[in-house]
């Protein structure tokens, strides 16, 4: 009986350890282009934390790049019903969005149709807006919000 309990516990530990390892991979993989830290932050602290890691808040040049970023997000346990800061904002030029890390004007956008008329200066990626219906689970869109709100974020290797 004692050996059966020992084997049961060992199997449980291995099973739980495997699942946790899979979800943590994107957060601490030193070879990945994108890293999704395991905490929420306002946009400014997210920018600071990525810089601390020797990285930058993510930039999104096109649809293929966004798909790669979403893949990194979906490798974590945070993909459902949450939102993620990007490096885009209009802080220096209201209504004209730039990537903070380069100062380059954003040329490719993936705005949600619900985005127009929203307040806020910092761009985030999401499949769901708080209090509203889910978008297609494969369709990650851009929204803006006040930069002081706490959200998850994605860092990109420089």
From TrEMBL:
Top-rank taxon: Eukaryota
* Keywords, sorted A to Z: Signal
- Database matches in CDD domains: CLECT (cd00037)
Do you know which Pfam families this protein is assigned to? Lectin_C (PF00059)
Membrane-traversing stretches: none
Signal peptide residues on this chain, from the entry's feature table = 1-17
Give yes or no: UniProt keyword Signal.
Answer: yes
Residues of the C-type lectin domain = 34-156
InterPro entries recorded: C-type_lectin-like (IPR001304), C-type_lectin-like/link_sf (IPR016186), CTDL_fold (IPR016187)
Q: What is this protein called?
A: Putative secreted protein
Question: Which taxonomic lineage does the organism of this UniProt entry have?
Answer: Eukaryota, Metazoa, Ecdysozoa, Arthropoda, Hexapoda
